[in-house]
Amino acid sequence: MGGSVPGGAASIIVGHPLDTVKVFGFFKGMSFPLASIAVYNSVVFGVFSNMQRFLSQHHARESEASRSHTLSDLLLASMVAGVVSVSLGTPVDLIKIRLQMQTQPFQEGNLGLKPRAVALGVQPVYQGAVHCIATIVRTEGLAGMYRGVGAMLLRDVPGYCLYFIPYVFLNDWITPEACAGPSPWAVWLAGGLAGAISWGTATPMDVVKSRLQADGVYLNKYKGILDCISQSYRKEGLKVFFRGITVNTVRGFPMSAAMFLGYELSLQALRGDHTVTSP
């Protein structure tokens, strides 16, 4: 599991500026996800790897080549990894979004603003990640840290299926049969393409998730996922759910390429061998 720590940090540094194009301030809010990404990605990749290994053993296929994968096993392992990622990643994303949104002026005017927001004007609500956590817990309770969890489930469970499964099959397709494992180039390309696919298709629910998590600082606009979808569609049309799809797809490639390559190479170093293995 520890092998994903360098890869996770690399993916954040590579992808974070593009992530914040949507809300300005290229490196605003990066310290919190960078500090937590080591644990987050280590657990997610570890869950996927161990779940895949468990399923392989359960089906008594230990003797098969390590590059032989069944779609059902990959699907189940990816779904479990997605659920685990939501439990860890929802608070991380919430804090990141709350800090990022402070880099742009508030555009809603004073209509419907909370009294506190009128007094603050465009002043930042949070002084940093720790203050943001403390404020949310104090005003919304522990449940407030999981604002948008339903939308994140709908984003991450299918999202990780379209992340790990393309990566594994692309790796298998690129790597010649005679090779013991994929080359760093194959890992980089397969990881990048998988990331672009996953983030591109996840954009509509990512929009909903981000709006729900940003809600509640100045305004309480949405009652839930369906209300957010309904209001967004009514005010901005269908195109709103594809806002940022180009940025998401473009940033998904270098982030995931760095993530998978860092993960695989660090595993190789820890094992003391010279063969890159799939997760």
UniProtKB/TrEMBL annotation:
Keywords, in A-Z order: Membrane, Mitochondrion, Mitochondrion inner membrane, Repeat, Transmembrane, Transmembrane helix, Transport
SUPFAM superfamilies linked to this entry: Mitochondrial carrier (SSF103506)
InterPro entries given in the database record: MCP_dom_sf, MCP_transmembrane, Mitochondrial_Carrier
Topology versus the membrane: Multi-pass membrane protein
Gene Ontology CC: mitochondrial inner membrane
Domain of life where this protein originates: Eukaryota
Keyword match Protein transport: no
Protein family (similarity comment): Belongs to the mitochondrial carrier (TC 2.A.29) family.
Protein name per the record: Solute carrier family 25 member 48
